[in-house]
Amino acid sequence: MAIESAVGEVGIEQNLKQFLLVLSVSLSVATLPQVFSWFRQIPYTLLLVIAGLGLALVDVRLVNLSPELILAIFLPPLLFEAAWNLKWSNLKRDLVPICLYAVIGVVISIAGVALGLNVLAQLPLTTALLVGASLSATDPVSVTALFRELGVDKRLTTLMEGESLFNDGMAVVAFSFLVALPLGTAQLGVRPVLLQLLSVVGIGLAVGGLIGFGISYLTQRFDLPLVEQSLTLVSAYGTYIIAEEFGGSGVIAVVIIGLILGNFGSRIGMNPRTRVIVSEFWEFLAFFVNSIVFLLIGDQVRFTHLGENLAIIAVTVAGMVLARAIAVYGLGLIANRLVNSDISLAQQTVLWWGGLRGSVSIALALSVPTILSEREDVIATVFGVVLFTLLVQGLTTKPLLEKLNLLGDQPLRQQYLELVARQTALKRVLRYLGQIEERPGLDPEFYRYQETLIKGELQRLEEQIDKLQDEYPNLRTFTAEQLRMELLAVEADTYAEFVRSGRLNQELAPLLEDVLEDEL
């Protein structure tokens, strides 16, 4: 018994050392853009992949990356954080195209890759389908981070994030069915496929919805920021595990609970201070997990295997890119016709090229059963394609945005907001100065001198703000949108306050949302 305990302690100590090593490398990479300005041109997650590739090149393996580790430990917080920050008001506008991309788009992606591999690379159909299913899940973390940094239109970010969140669940469901075919535990047919799809998706929706609304109403009863923060963490992992135990999709369940808590629970059950605390916690956790995942993706590459499967990887990349184009442009056209989505050709092009593959694809490939002889080929192919999307598509997305004139005006907006913040601060200083005008011992001449200095600085700031607004008329729209969001937040917080105090038994629907949309 003592020997077993000692062995267990050694194992824990070894795992802790590996974890600290991975974390140290990740944080070291994170500091590079601050030390060397050239690295700021590369998204942080891609820097991590490149660093991992460097380690793999010299055969330094930080840790063994298992599918269970990604799916059960890394995936829930990444999904929850993205869903928590995805506003329902933005999502519902494009729900139809997002669902088309996430459901029919997954089918097109699987079919395109499988057809190319089966016809051109002569791979068995079952193997080709497994590769297609593994690569049907988009993971545009690097691209959406770049969008936020550059101030790209929020709608484009919502389309890409929304599709990724929902198609992750569909990809896992499709993969689970296809991996059962060569094992003889599933039947290929329309009816069994639909039954399994409805069962897995339905259970995921039910579990995520029940737990999400349950926690939302529970947090109305108390105001304990740390407890509420902990509840969101437990709910992310707990929902995933419970849904999987009942035979549903843990991915879909986590997405649903994240959407509910981010858009409903945080309004009726959390005060503004708590919401900020929880949001900052999940921002840190997403950064932390992404730092580990993307470094390990690069570190797990086996260059020998990639070289042996180079032809298959090339065929897969071509099939995936072509299938993605058919899905994005074809389904975009349908959405524009059906519900007048008005997704421009330029936006569709970014959605096509920015559909990177990442951690979910790696996890699915690694989870192929060892009894299948083609397992190593599937893993090598998926790793190769993931590296192509991250390094080639990921690094060329910014030039594509520039070419299509979709770059936002984030630096200009930041400059404008800094001027407004300084103006607000100086006005408060001026008001405070007026309150102490009669302070005993204060020389009136000194008071007037200080007042003149502050007023002069205020006038200079106002001139700079007016000049920016004249030169860039879009700033007026931005200012109006900022005010609209502030007013809507005040309205929502007021309803939440009434619910918490017991004066209302449910949160009211926003009254000003449509009114302010028309006015501003």
Automatic annotation (TrEMBL):
- Membrane-spanning ranges: 19-39, 46-63, 69-86, 98-121, 169-190, 197-217, 237-261, 281-298, 310-338, 378-396
Query: Is-annotated flag, keyword Cytoplasm?
Result: no
- Subcellular locations according to the entry: Cell membrane
Q: A GO biological process this protein is involved in? A: sodium ion import across plasma membrane
First-listed, main subcellular location of the protein, grouped into a coarse class? membrane
Q: Which UniProt keywords apply?
A: Antiport, Cell membrane, Coiled coil, Ion transport, Membrane, Sodium, Sodium transport, Transmembrane, Transmembrane helix, Transport
Q: Name one GO molecular function term.
A: sodium:proton antiporter activity
- Domain (Cation/H+ exchanger transmembrane): residue spans on this chain: 26-403
| InterPro entries per UniProt | Cation/H_exchanger_CPA1 (IPR018422), Cation/H_exchanger_TM (IPR006153), NaH_exchanger (IPR004709)
Reply yes or no: does the keyword Cell membrane apply. Answer: yes
Q: Which residues form a coiled coil?
A: 451-478
Matching Pfam families:
Na_H_Exchanger
Membrane topology term: Multi-pass membrane protein
Q: Which GO terms describe its cellular component?
A: plasma membrane
Q: Please report which protein family the annotation says this sequence is part of.
A: Belongs to the monovalent cation:proton antiporter 1 (CPA1) transporter (TC 2.A.36) family.
The protein's name in its UniProt record: Na+/H+ antiporter
* Organism, scientific name: Chlorogloeopsis fritschii PCC 6912
Lineage of source species = Bacteria, Bacillati, Cyanobacteriota, Cyanophyceae, Nostocales
